[in-house]
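Collaborator request log, item 7. Partner lab (contact: R.S.) asked for a structural prediction of Cytochrome bc1 complex Rieske iron-sulfur subunit to inform their binding assays.
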Amino acid sequence: MSSGNEPGATPPPSDAELERMDRDALVRLGTSLDGVEIVNYPEPWPVKGTRAEKRAERAVALSFLISALAGVGFVVALIWWPWRYQPPSNQDAHFLYSLYTPLLGITLGVSILALATGVLLYTKRFIPDELAIQQRDDNMGQGSAELHRKTILAQLADAGNRSTFARRSAIKRSLGLSAGMLGLGTVALPVASLIKDPWDQTDTKESLWHTGWQQQFPGEIVYLRRNTGIPDEISLVRPEDLDAGGMETVFPFRESERGNHEALLHALRRADNPVLLIRLRPEDADRVVKRQGQEDFNFGDYYAFSKICTHVGCPASLYEQRTNRLLCPCHQSQFDVLQYAKPVFGPATRALPQLPITVHTDGYLIARHDFIEAIGPGFWERPS
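Returned to partner:
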């Protein structure tokens, strides 16, 4: 078919004629331009209002409705489900607590899956299955002419009309509800992480400014304890327990918690408690650059740093002895232990906070006091 630019071809309509054309006329004009050949353009439902069509519409609406209900469930679980740790001895409360994370994953996953299923079903059942062949050029580098823009918009509008979306109110309402609930969940997820007030109980270990290493009263001894896998088993750390170049994860222990299963388990599970205890090799210890104001935080060759990465809070748990670097496996941040664990690679921008340690008179390693800065990633009340 002629394009309108060849000798003897029908000249294209003027702008005034284009304005007078309805959508059907523009569609026909668009298919006649530039050598378009429509191979197949069947109606999805040639006979309107059949039972099969109504079943298809209900299936799409049901998918969107399930997505919306799952989105509501996600928001409810995120905000109101019991999320604080409960010991196994309290069976009912522990059971509800153990469902918190699975519920978040299931409800959010179902919401996204059902929304995607509804979109796919609608595309398959109601969008016209058009097959067309068209030869186009770039209009000598000038882009699409007004004629082509008009006709392609008409064709898109015609495809939307043929999909019958405008008259399917059940699908539109359920889709809007689904998208709204999923959007609400998307907003609630980051907002929920900002609910905790860092100034609440500022002077206690429950504040974002402090950790489980904080002394509960003046003179309290907080030992460095390893996790043996048995919460009630107390394994304290002596300096001779680590070889030069060795590393171990330790947690706080108080004599007042001995025999208290819940307190011992909580100390191991509390997110801001893990600390990396590192014993440097003698030749490496001589090259250490200490952070200003923290020159006495180490005990000889022993250095202790928060295990919580300052990027997004993953465990910076990989220690490369040869280079004396701590690596966070989540986003590849690296911290130089010989330079107060400052970041030298990756997205982290803050050094790992250092825990001041020493040895008690009984020969075990202890924390002199809590960290002097908030650990983990930044939050809105912290200046850095």
